[in-house]
Amino acid sequence: MVKKGKKKGSDGKACWEGFYYGGYDEKNEKDICLPNPKKKKTAKYGSIVMKKGGSTAAWTRKEGKNPTGGLNAKGVASYRAENPGSKLKMAVTGKVKRGSKASKRRKSFCARMKGVKGPMRKNGKPTRKALALRKWNC
């Protein structure tokens, strides 16, 4: 009996596309399907599947990060492109009115970020956590 999603191979055994029959596991009482070694290797990051040697989104690399902490405009744009429907916004850095939406957002971020474990300095330099807290005026 061929399970849903599986196809019968030339050997008469059933495996998914891109896999081949690797024998029977008597301990777990099931067939073993192994990945086809002839397929090109790909690296998967988030929802994007890239061939080997491809680059990741800007928000994960140096050019998407602001040296003073957080993401820069390019980093935010690349994050939104990779995660459709996300509502990622830039940091609240300026002066804001008490009780405003922005001040509540800042207060929430600071409360969450201050609870994150990890050092504020590493090798004499401030960590990304320290930079973010400073940028948000926490």
What can be said about this structure in brief?
23% of the residues lie in helices and 21% in strands. It has 138 residues and is an alpha+beta fold. It starts with 6 loop residues before the first strand and ends with a helix.
Characterise this structure.
The chain folds into three domains: 1-39, no CATH class; 40-90, no CATH class; 94-138, no CATH class. 23% of the residues lie in helices and 21% in strands. The chain is built from three helices and eight strands, in the order ββββββααββα. The radius of gyration is 24 Å and the shape is elongated. It starts with 6 loop residues before the first strand and ends with a helix. The relative contact order is 0.10. The mean pLDDT is 79.
Which sequence of SSEs, written as H and E, runs from N to C?
EEEEEEHHEEH
Cα(first) to Cα(last) distance is 62 Å
Main sheet overview? 2 strands, antiparallel
| Gross geometry | elongated
Structural class comes to alpha+beta
Count of alpha and pi helical runs? 3
Percentage of residues in helical conformation? 10-25%
Strand order of the largest sheet: 1-2
- Name the beta content range: 15-25%
Alpha carbon gyration radius: 24 Å
DSSP E strands, number: 8
Residue windows where pLDDT falls under 50 for at least 5 positions: none
Instruction: Indicate how many domains the architecture comprises.
Output: 3
| Mean pLDDT score | 79
